[in-house]
Amino acid sequence: MSLPPSVYDAEPIPEAARAEIERLLTTGDLFRYTAAQDAPVTLLETEFAQMMGTKYALAVSSCSAALFLSLKALDLPRGARVLLPGFTFAAVPSAVVHADCRPVLCEVGEDYRIDIADFESRLPGVDAVIISHMRGHTSDMDAIMALCADRDIPVVEDAAHSLGTTWHGQNIGTIGRIGCFSFQSYKLLNSGEGGMLITDDADLVARAIIMSGAYEHMWKKHKPRHGENSNDLTEALERWQNRLPLYNLRLSNLAAAIVRPQLAEVPRRVRDGRRNHDHTAAAIGASPWIVVPGKLPPEERAPDSLQFNLVGLDDAQTRAFQTAAAERGVKVQVFGLSTDNARAFWNWQFIPDLPDLPRTRAMLMRACDCRLPARLTLADCDAIAAALIGAVEEVMTPAPQAATAG
Ligand SMILES: *Cc1c(COP(=O)(O)O)cnc(C)c1O
After folding, report:
1. Distance, CA 343 to ligand 1 centroid (Å)?
2. Is 292:52 a contact under the CB 8 Å cutoff?
3. How far is the CA of 390 from the centre of ligand 1 (A)?
4. pTM for the whole thing?
């Protein structure tokens, strides 16, 4: 059996980035608004909009910045209530707090997806919704969009970790009014830090463009998707000129030059990530102590990590499983068991009136998380699956000498 591979190393940046980075180093042209036209950030925006099939894309410094700007662009009143799942990354409720809004959390089920009945029960009085597709698991967007459309509540998709995922064939991030993506190193596109906001709404994107730091007439360098008429955008930008605060959340040309050649890699990364995930999920799902929740029928996933639930293990056995897996070379995160985990809602103590979410809490205490990047081979995946199964068997099957001892 081969040793499990390192799952934390990123993929190399495509060689094609090198010439453009060299040019940027030579010219020092790192600010997105210096060049008269065709700056790397602008090109990335139009290419990303093209890839996603949206009219507008705005590159920013992170997905968290994109979420924050989304809420500001929606012009929500101070203290507005924003509903989001109780299973997400701490930066998401943080963006809500930053935007002077109040996070309202709803329950998430054992399948890592929003509990629709609980979501519906918390909708009255809510002004906006952020759907975090956590670890790329898509919640029931048909139900969510119908419930929100009935009440005229805008939906922002936190698709940070969902690039390449589709729902009824439609790109995740294009279903809600706004979609937000991350280019942090653990996501499908990696520039270390970075993010993207996409929408078809000229007025919303105009507000976000200005607040992202397009001061004076820098906004004239923003373009819609190639071939799209830019009149709506220009009118909206003229309307908002000088009327909005600047938060300066721009992306640099260097980050854009690193992301652009990766766009062509997206289909391969999605295909191989899904292959690795489904192969490993099938292998570990054979264990009586492991359940890998299935995808929803309209969903085609783009995973780069594996989540599964331990069944029939108590806290001590779950910890013993983590230790046994680590001894076999596989690091498993149990979201609710590690101290100060940023994905455990009870650690978001900056939220006033933090609710108890018993279902979400129970899930977090048994939900395991392993990275499973697209670059792994099936042999690597077999080694990881063998380590996970060996670890749970070691914990749950008493060894013969232990059974006869004392
Ligand atoms: C990574 C991630 C974020 C934060 O993205 P940044 O670009 O680091 O701000 C938000 N939500 C989800 C679901 C994520 O996976």
Report:
1. 11
2. no
3. 32
4. 0.96
Which domains are present in the chain? 17-264 (3.40.640.10), 266-396 (3.90.1150.10)
188 CA from centroid of ligand 1 (Å): 12
Contact assessment for residue 130 and residue 158, using Cβ atoms and an 8 Å cutoff: yes
Tokens of 277: 């995930």
Query: For every one of its 406 residues, what pLDDT tens digit does the chain have, with 9 covering 90 and above?
Result: 556 778 888 899 999 999 999 999 999 999 999 999 999 999 999 999 999 999 999 999 999 999 999 999 999 999 999 999 999 999 999 999 999 999 999 999 999 999 999 999 999 999 999 999 999 999 999 999 999 999 999 999 999 999 999 999 999 999 999 999 999 999 999 999 999 999 999 999 999 999 999 999 999 999 999 888 999 999 999 999 999 999 999 999 999 999 999 999 999 999 999 999 999 999 999 999 999 999 999 999 999 999 999 999 999 999 999 999 999 999 999 999 999 999 999 999 999 999 999 999 999 999 999 999 999 999 999 999 999 999 999 999 976 665 554 4
Position in ligand 1 atom list of the atom nearest CA 62: 7
Ligand 1 centroid to residue 138 C-alpha, Å: 15
Give the contacts of 330 (CB within 8 A, at least 6 positions apart).
4, 370, 384, 387, 388, 391
Structure tokens at 399: 């060894």
Minimal-distance CA residue to ligand 1 atom 13? 134
Which amino acids bring their CB within 6 angstroms of ligand 1?
62-64, 88-89, 91-92, 132, 134, 158, 160-161, 182, 184, 195
